[in-house]
Amino acid sequence: MAAAHQELYVSAVRPRSYQDESYLHGFLGTVRDLQKDGVLQDVVLEVEGRRFPCHRLVLSAASPYFRAMFTSDMAESRQKKIVLQGLDAGMFWEILSYIYSGTLHVSLDKVQPLYQAADLLQLDYVRDTCSSYMAMNVEQCTFVDLYNFADVFSVDIVLRRCVEWIDLNFVEFSFSEEFCSLSLNQLTEIISHDELDVKEETTVWEAVVKWVQHSMENSILPHIRFNLLTSDDTAAILDHPLVREDPGSSEVIINVVQKGNPNLKPRHGMFTEMALQPFQASGANDIIFMNPQEGKYISCSYRPEDLPRAIAMTVTSDNNIYILTHERESNNQLSVAKYNHAGNVWEDAGISIEDLRYNNTYLIEVDGILYCLFVDVSGGDIKMIKYNQGMDQWQECSQQIDITEYYDFYVALSCGSFLFFLTSSELHRYDPSQDRWCKLTSPGYIEDVCSAVAMGTEIFCTDMNLTQTMVYDTELDCWQTLQGWPNPGNFDIDHVPSLFVLENQLHIFFTCCSDSQEGYRNLVYVYDRSTDAWIDKRATLPNTEYFTHGSHCIVARIYLPYLRGA
User: Fold this and answer.
1) Which of 94, 100, 96, 136 minimizes the C-alpha distance to 113?
2) Fewer CB under 10 Å: which end of the chain, C or N?
C-alpha cells in the first residue's frame, strides 16, 4: 500500500521549465566585456580604412548578412580580415555598439546613414527603429531631403508621414525654398492629393507658378483643378504672364476648363463640417446644413420622390451619407439611398432590407461596415444585421442584446470600433470582432434618454428635456454628470433634441415652444466643458418643425458650392 501511494505521488510531480533572467542579461554583458577587452576575437572587419576586431559567432547571431558570410562557401568565411564596402565607418561603429550591447543611439544627424547601414546588414530592429524615429520627426528634418530618402529606400512609414505633413501644411511648405527643389513627379503626386488642406484652388495655382518659374517646366499645369475655380479666377489665370506668354499653356488650361473632369474632387480643406437636420415643409423634404461655429445655415429642398422621408441616417468614415427609407413599390422592403455630393441629389445605393416592422430602426457604420439595428419596444426584441458588401447581402449578427427591463427611450450609436446601445439604466456594447454583446457599467438612471453622440473615446447623452446630461468614458467604463440646459425662457421641448459633434465641440439642436410665443423656435447650443455651461449660438434658423432621425444629427464634410442656394 505504501509503495502504491509513493508511485501515485511521484507521478503527480510534473517537470517544469525555469528561465534565468539574470543569465540572459548577464550573457550579453559578458559578450560586451569580451569585445571591450579584445578577448577571443577571431575576425577583423575593415570599413573605410578603420579596423574593427570582432567575434564571428556574435556577428552571425545578430545579422543574417554576417551569418551568410561566415557559414557559406564564400571566401570571407575563411579570411581573418574582411573589407566591407558601402558602409560609413562611424555608422558601423554604432551598429557594432548595438550588436554587443542591445542599445541603439539615434539622432537626426545620423538616422539616415544608420538606416542605410542597417538595411545592408539586415538588422531589422535598427532599420525599423530608424524608420519610426524619422516618421516622428518629420517636422524637424530638412523636409525634401527626408522625402527623397524615404522615396529612394521605399520607407513606407516615413513616406506616408511626409505626405500627411504636406497635406496639412501645403500653404506653409509652398513658401519655403525647399518647395522649388521638388521634382516634377513629386509635385505632380502632391497636388493630385484630395487631402490637401487648402481653402481655394488658387492657392495650388500660385504654388505651381512659383515652382514653374524656378524649374522652367510647365507640364504640371494640367494637374491643377481648374474646374474648382470661379470664372473670375480662371480669367485672371489666363491673363497671367506665365500663361499669356506661352500659347501652349493657355491652350492646355482652356481645354481642361472646357472639358471638365468630374473625377477632380474638391480638396479636403475646401470642405466644411456641417450637421444635417431633416424636416418637412411646403410639401417637400428639406435638409438644413448647419455650422454654428461659422454661422452657416443652408436649407435645401428635395421633392418627396427624390428624397423619401428617412427612417434612419448615417455618415460613414469616408464621408458617404446614407438614409434608410421605405421602397416606393413595396411595403415589405426598406431601401438605402446615398447622397451624391456633386449633384446634391439622393441616389439608390442598390441595398435593400426586409422591413421587420419594428418600432425603431438605426443605421450605423463601424469600421466601414453598415449595421442595421431593429428595436421592438413592445416585446423587448432587438435584432441586428450587417451588410456584407462582397456578397451584396445582409447577414444576421449571432448574439442579440439581453435587455432586462422594458424602456420607452433608448439610443444606439458607434464609438471607435464598437457599437453601443443605451437605455435609461443599461449600457450594452457590441464587439464586431467577437460578434458579441456585453453589459457595461450602468449610468444609474437617465429619465427618457433620447440622444447620444460619440466624441473621441467618450459618449455624451441627454434626456428629453435636456435637464440631465451625462458623459461615459469608454476606456475607463465610468460615468460623469454634466450641467443640463439652463432653459432661460421657460420653453417646453417640443421634439426629441439632437446632440452632435462639430469641430470637436459638443452641440445640441432642439425645437421648443412657449406659451408667450406662437409657433416653434429652433435653438442650437454649444457645450463649454471648461465652465460646464451651455452657450446659445443664436442660430438664424427658420421657425419650422423638424424631425429627428436616430440618436443624433449626423455630421459630414460638405463642399458648399455643391449646395443649391449656397
Assistant:
1) 94
2) N
**Residue 285 pLDDT class (50, 70, 90 cuts):** confident
SS3 call for 271: coil
Counting runs of H as helices and runs of E as strands, what totals does the chain give? 15, 28
Compute φ and ψ for 410, nearest 5 degrees.
-170, 165
What is d(CA 199, CA 556) in angstroms, rounded to the nearest whole number?
Answer: 17
Are 144 and 173 a contacting pair, CB within 8 Å? no
CATH architecture assignment, domain 20-136: 2-Layer Sandwich (3.30)
SS3 for 151? helix
371: left (phi over 0), alpha (psi -120 to 50) or beta: beta
> Which top CATH class is 156-259?
mainly alpha
* Topology annotation, domain 271-562: Neuraminidase (2.120.10)
For residue 162, the SS3 value is helix
Among residues 425, 441, 423, 424, the alpha carbon closest in space to that of 478 is found at 441
Contacts of 152 (CB under 8 A, 6+ apart): none
The amino acid at 374: F
Model confidence over 130-142: pLDDT tens digits? 999 999 988 867 7
Give tens-digit pLDDT for 334-363: 889 999 998 888 998 988 888 777 778 899
Q: What is the pTM of this model?
A: 0.77
Domain with CATH 2.120.10.80 in the chain: 271-562
- What does the DSSP 8-state code read for residue 514? -
Instruction: Please name the residue that has the C-alpha cell 434618454.
Output: 449
∠ Cα 424 353 429 (to 5°): 30
Edge-to-edge strand ranges of the sheet holding 50-54: 50-54, 43-47, 81-83
Which strands, in side-by-side order, build the sheet including 478-482?
Answer: 449-455, 458-463, 469-473, 478-482
Q: Could you tell me if residue 260 is left (phi over 0), alpha (psi between -120 and 50 degrees) or otherwise beta? A: left
Query: Which parts of 243-344 are beta strand (E)?
Result: 272-281, 284-291, 296-302, 312-315, 321-326, 333-340
CATH 1.25.40.420 segments of the chain: 156-259
For 232-265, the pLDDT digits (tens) are: 888 888 888 878 777 777 777 777 666 656 667 8
Phi and psi for 100 in degrees, rounded to 5? Answer: -90, -10
Residues of the chain with CATH 3.30.710.10: 20-136
DSSP reduced 3-state for 487: coil
Instruction: Determine contact, residues 425/445, Cβ cutoff 8 Å.
Output: yes
Cell of 376: 421592438
pLDDT at 143: 82
Over range 17-39, report the average pLDDT. 69
CA distance 355 to 334: 6
Distance CA 275, CA 289 (A): 6
Distance CA 26, CA 33 (A): 10
**452 closest CA partner among 419, 405, 488:** 419
